[in-house]
């Protein structure tokens, strides 16, 4: 993964700023934490959790850590966040798991179709105090990255323009936008053609007929005003992802114990309070906005739902191949099922 020239210049600039920041930290006892995300403040389901993380870092550290946020991709775009973190351009990044699960396949455990019976179970499985969180960080550690905490998003549906997807055969040949590898495998298992693109490009792609629909959670639809053009949504657990706070392992370990504790507390607040706000916004605001926009919600059940489950079953095998260790993949799936 590489950064564009502009981002390398930004990294160099931040390196100089970091030296100044270190001198200031020695003088004032305050360390600036360079924080980045592609998510704009207009995502009022997700951004409150990000703000809660930053506020908690400041409060739990007694003011010794101060987050300097670069949101909306102003420092690093969605695909640049991970390499930027590893290069030290940012100290903490907020990223959607679907953008990085190809680099860190263990994160795909949370994205598998029909991986949990309901959102409450998915949410319990991702508790920072739980064993799955520990397993994820054990797998990330050798690659120099640490997960501090995250918000499990509500399930991803299939959103289409011209006709609903009532059974797997209906998706055959459809060009469906996806944001990550597991989503792409799910669309292929249904017979569709996955098209990888950022959420900012989706409205125009739908309008021009470049794609026939998308796989996403409801937040992307409303935040990008896609309910103006989407007409159908097949409401089932076709996928899920998380919005997480990550840092470099070495940066985390260089912090004194009390500041590591502050970062961990911020991760728990992101999971606990951020997820609560997100779920409430989806239920009370976003889903009603989608229906008011004229989107018909189709909810398969019984034999229809089982047909979808059977169709996407091969996705598990492909993910297990990416993990490369059956014991790890089996344990991750079991921890979700047992949550």
Helix/strand layout:
Blueprint: H1 5-28, E1 31-37, H2 47-60, E2 65-70, H3 81-87, E3 92-96, H4 97-100, H5 119-125, H6 131-140, E4 145-152, E5 156-160, E6 175-178, H7 181-189, E7 193-196, H8 202-208, E8 213-216, H9 218-223, E9 232-239, E10 242-248, H10 249-254, H11 257-292, E11 296-298, H12 303-312, H13 314-323, H14 326-338
Parallel strand pairs: 1-2, 1-3, 6-7, 6-8, 9-11
Antiparallel strand pairs: 3-10, 4-10, 5-8, 5-9
Helix pairs in contact: 2-11, 5-14, 7-13, 13-14
Characterise the protein shown here:
The structure is a single chain. This protein has 14 helices and eleven strands. It has 339 residues and is of the alpha/beta class. The relative contact order is 0.17. Strand 6, helix 7 and strand 7 form a beta-alpha-beta unit. It has two domains: 189 residues, 3-Layer(aba) Sandwich (D-Maltodextrin-Binding Protein, domain 2), CATH 3.40.190; 134 residues, D-Maltodextrin-Binding Protein, domain 2 (3-Layer(aba) Sandwich).
